[in-house]
Design a protein that fits this description.
47% of the residues lie in helices and 13% in strands. By secondary structure, the chain is α/β, with parallel strands linked by helices. The chain has 2 domains: 68 residues, no CATH class; 142 residues, Dna Topoisomerase Vi A Subunit, Chain: A, domain 2, CATH 3.40.1360.
Length: 267
């Protein structure tokens, strides 16, 4: 952004995967020292062209190449207010509530909803620190079923529940994720039609369970988005979550404004 804004070229050397240019991968250069019989020779450029440009960097940095794919939405965002959500399904829920009148307050329109690619991303404290430094206002959500392990990592970064992050879901069997906040009519309609998928949730095969869960999540979302009208009481759990997030961003925005004013000497 700095280079584009000022029309200048900036060269940065780094071993950090977070600093790679995700928007224009051709701007990344990977240089490695050639060796022969264990002796260092000349420096050579490694080919990082093509769609799989991340793989060579991952290999030399000792990182799983798949991790880069989950990080890309985090680095491509330029908004100041970012709501981090667990995955694309959660993103679609929040964006739907942001753009449609469903009988509760909408999610603030100046918030960008960005998926972070699953709970393991939040356990990467270096990555979370980098993301927090990139944006002015950040709030994090995650499914209640992974609260114990995720909250522990966020606590190490001095992030506090409710102030900086909240779990989504209810303390009820099968409702410890964002789907647990949906109206009961949505869940019952899908479960009634998809009995085979519901039965697979109890399978001994972990792949079958995962596949069934993923399919049901898609169907819950589609049922929620089909345009039906819900009562206020049916939406109370979603309303509470959206209301809390909106209020936190309002407070975070005021805090950032005060900080900027104190730096510039403005009243």
């Amino acid at each position: 952004m700095l280079a584009a804004d000022h029309g200048i070229q900036i060269i940065v050397t780094t071993h950090s995967p977070y600093m790679l240019n995700q928007e224009d991968p051709t701007a990344n250069l990977l240089l490695c020292r050639a060796t022969k019989r264990g002796k260092p020779l000349h420096t050579e450029r490694v080919d990082t062209s093509g769609d799989n440009w991340m793989a060579p960097f991952a290999e030399h940095l000792g990182i799983d190449a798949g991790e880069f794919a989950t990080w890309r939405p985090l680095f491509s965002s330029h908004e100041s207010k970012v709501l981090l959500v667990e995955g694309p399904i959660d993103q679609q829920y929040f964006e739907y509530i942001q753009q449609n009148d469903i009988g509760i307050d909408r999610l603030r329109g100046d918030i960008e909803v960005v998926p972070y690619g699953g709970k393991d991303t939040l356990k990467n404290t270096l990555l979370v620190q980098f993301v927090l430094s990139k944006f002015d206002n950040v709030f994090i959500t995650y499914d209640l079923d992974c609260k114990q392990e995720v909250a522990a990592a966020l606590t190490r970064l001095s992030l506090k529940e409710k102030a900086d992050h909240i779990p989504l879901g209810l303390n009820q069997s099968g409702k410890d994720a964002i789907e647990g906040l949906l109206p009961a009519t949505v869940l019952s309609a899908v479960n009634g039609r998809e009995t085979d998928l519901v039965m697979q949730l109890g399978s001994q095969n972990s792949k079958d369970r995962r596949k069934a869960k993923d399919e049901l999540k898609k169907k819950y979302l589609a049922e929620f988005q089909n345009g039906q009208q819900f009562g206020v009481n049916e939406l109370k759990h979603l309303s509470a979550a959206i209301g809390h997030i909106n209020k936190r961003f309002e407070k975070l925005n005021k805090r950032v404004h005060r900080t900027r004013c104190s730096r510039t000497g403005d009243a």
